[in-house]
Amino acid sequence: MSEQLESGAPTFLDKFPDEAAVVRAALWSSFIALALGAVFGLIQALHRTDVLRLIDSTDYYTVLTAHGVLMVVSFTIFFLVGLFTWATVRSFDRGVESIRYTWTWYGLMVAGTLMAVVAILGGFVPQTDISADVLFTFYAPMQAHPLFYGGLAIFVIGTWLAGADYIWTWRAWAAENPDERIPLQGFMVLTTMLMWYVATIGIAIAVVAFLLPWSLGLFDQINPLLTRTLFWFWGHPVVYFWLMPAYLLWYTVLPTIAGGRLFSDPLGRVVFVLFLLLSTPVGIHHQYVDPGIAEGFKTIAMTNTMFLLLPSLLTAFTVVASVEHGARQRGGTGLLGWLRALPWRNPAFTGMMLAGLMFAAGGFSGMINAGMNINYLVHNTIWVPGHFHLTVGTAVALTLMAATYWLWPQLTNRRLYSRPIGLAQVVIWFVGMGLMSNAMHVQGLFGIPRRTAEPQYEGFDFVASFGSVSELNLQLAIGGTLLFISTMLFVTNIALSAGTPKLSGIGQPLSEPLSTVDDSPEILDNLKLWFGIALVLVVLAYALPLASIIDRGGLLGPGVDPVPMIVEPVAATIEPTLGRLAAAVGSVVP
Amino acid sequence: MNIHNYEKIWLVLSMLLIIGFISTVVYGATAVGIEMVNDEGGTIDSTALDEDDRFSEPRVEKVGEDEYEAYVVARQFIFEPNPIEVPANSTVTFYVTSPDVLHGFEVVGTNANAMVVPGEITELTVEVNEPKEYGILCNEYCGGGHHTMEGKLIVVPEDEFELGDSNDE
Amino acid sequence: MVPTMSGENTVREIGHDEFDPKGTLVLILVYFGVLSVMWVFMYFVEFLGNDLTVLV
Question: A388 catalytic, yes or no?
Fold first, then answer.
């Protein structure tokens, strides 16, 4: 309780009020997406398990598209840019170079999100020809309204500019501090953004060169395997883009909250460098059972993927050791008895620890997903969403929510509305996800598919090797309901915090690592070198598969017609679309 | 850079784990003989499946002693032929393609599970044993009727099997 | 046992050289064991024991 208060130190808001406003705006954008996404998630959990069907099964896919895009694009990435702005400004201890520039990229991201969301929600309105029932993966030749692709492109451009903002701050700082090592949080932000630049090459080409002009009718045909492969070029590293904010918090905030110090700064840097190098040349592991890609390319992707486990396994050790250090400083003793000495009543601490525990479980199902031939067992079954609800859905989401309980007072100079509600919220999330994810994993092993409105078939039944399908459905529905309740508690708690009295001197400085950066070789901070190697690895992993796919199917495909998820001819909708775009941009850029 | 001894132990164990995983998969690929769906199925003009001898009439064909080929079209929102009938104790190679969007081809409760991409032909070979009925479902979202897309694979006793049974309709 | 301190203070400072995370080592070894057993179960029982494996 009082540990967060009355330290007398200035908060982030005290030192950088302009930047704090951007961070709060980004976080609110994130939380709004989270709340909406949770509503759609609840509808799905009840619908596919046949507990309660409020919508037509055709609309399920509109709901699913909205849930996916809002959660893994808007919620995670808005939080990321907010957190990274905080971490950059805090760790370099200087404001951004131009606050107008900072607001501009935020505005672009909002505009892009609104465009995509309008396109998706148009799917509910039969009177309009706008629709984008193509799910988060938007595999061609399924076609969405151009507004969807355009929104996505603008959103990504916003994130590129955000990355440039962090680099700008870093270069300005480096000019004044030529002999200093990059502070750890700044290092994590920069390596993550460099990884993002490598990763988004794939999505930029897929959307700008193929999908957007194709949806505008500039050409009719497309090579579906090419755009799918480009999607996964981005689609796997994006999961690390979601994860890195959680890692940043585990490495730099969790040890302080636990009462300890980070075990090793240099190993933290090694981990982030490994993610920069290995996150992208692995995307083909999402295509293990695709035709048109040789087994050799799949094997290379698997090997890279397996080595990508290394940074996460190292993180598990470093983070737990830092927490143990905190426990022992707080008087904890014994081989495992120190676990009792930890601040379990603090929702920020407990939330992050529960998130980490679930990540350990999600790590296991991820190892199965990475195994090439065992993919036949689980590919596109509900096992896969079971997996990523543990990773992005808990390791990331729960960490971000828990960290907000710590971060929000630093951004507002106000106490959290209720710590007990916060504690209940993180525990409810853990229990809800335990139920839901367990049911999903088990059902997946029976062959029950993901992304399906009614996984109840006429001609056959699923054979449950243990439990029963209906029992697991109930588990899934209860879990989904708890997750919805937890989300609402979180958002309400943060919203009500605005009504608590202003405080002063509640800043909480972060503790220094035990093993500091001075112990590490300077080459670790050579970001140009790592960026260059990352690009080379991507070329090695992707040049031949992409060449082979283009050679087989042509750049624009061997006669695959678009299958629009929109009814009207596209040309008739371009003009109103551009009008809406202009309006959306105008309304959000301050 | 000083790394704690415990962390060195963990680093070694992590590498062992990773190498263990890769070795298991390689064992499956070589000793067990599991093949990944790959680029050997070839390509096809997805707008002209009716001009292709195999897919103009989706069916099962006998190609050798106890060896059969099934030419399957996955389209919004059906599988053809349906049901797919094959005799017990035979080797069956499925050739699956799509004239419209991406689909999944999953024989429910088995390891026969692959993507179907327009323009590409998915080729996968399995061995069927006793007579049994399997469900088939599409596990890649393919449009508003995706959840209705299902079929059947029926393994019939060898003495009851007749070619052509499965492509009557 | 931990004294009840709502202030949650540090009761002692532990530096780099006097800290061996032996509890962490135990936990992580348990995790290693669980991962190995579960992997073997999933690969050899659930996967290789399953019907219709795709063969060359």
Answer: yes
Q: Mean pLDDT, consecutive 10-residue segments, chain A of 590 residues?
A: 63 98 98 98 98 96 98 98 98 98 98 97 90 95 96 98 98 96 98 98 96 94 96 98 98 97 96 98 98 97 97 97 97 96 98 98 97 98 98 98 98 97 98 98 97 96 91 97 98 97 94 91 96 97 96 79 53 45 50
Contact B116, B103 (CB under 8 A): yes
Quick one: residue A268, left, alpha or beta (phi over 0 = left, psi -120 to 50 = alpha)? alpha
> Helix, strand, or coil here: A292?
coil
Residue at C40 is within a domain = yes
Which site among B25, B34, B77, B154 would you substitute to test the A interface, given the most A Cβ atoms closer than 10 Å to its Cβ? B25
Chain A CB contacts of C15 below 8 Å? 514
- Which of chain C's residues have a Cβ under 8 Å away from the Cβ of B9? 25
Single-letter amino acid, residue A213 = P
Subunits next to B (3 or more Cβ pairs <8 Å) are: A, C
HSE-CB at A116 with a 13 A cutoff on CA atoms is 28
| C26 located within any domain | yes
Choosing from A263, A450, A484, A490, the catalytic residue is: A450
Q: Give chain C's radius of gyration (CA, Å).
A: 22
Number of domains in chain C: 1
Alpha helices per DSSP H over B28-124: none
Catalytic site residue A450? Answer: yes
Chain A residues with CB inside 8 Å of C28's CB?
A: 316-317, 320
Do A195 and A152 form a contact (C-beta atoms < 8 A)? no
Query: Per residue in A346-359, is it b (16+ CB within 10 Å) or e — as a string?
Result: bbbbbbbbbbbbbb
Domains detected in chain A = 10-452+460-588 (1.20.210.10)
What's A460's DSSP letter? -
Catalytic residue of the set A149, A415, A451, A531: A451
Residue C35 placed within a domain: yes
Domain B39-167 has CATH 2.30.30.140: no
Contact B118, B46 (CB under 8 A): yes
Decide if A167 touches B, using CB distance below 8 A. Answer: no
Q: How far is B18 from chain C (nearest CA, A)?
A: 11
Domain boundaries, chain B: 1-34, 39-167
Choosing from A75, A78, A233, A388, which is the catalytic residue? A388
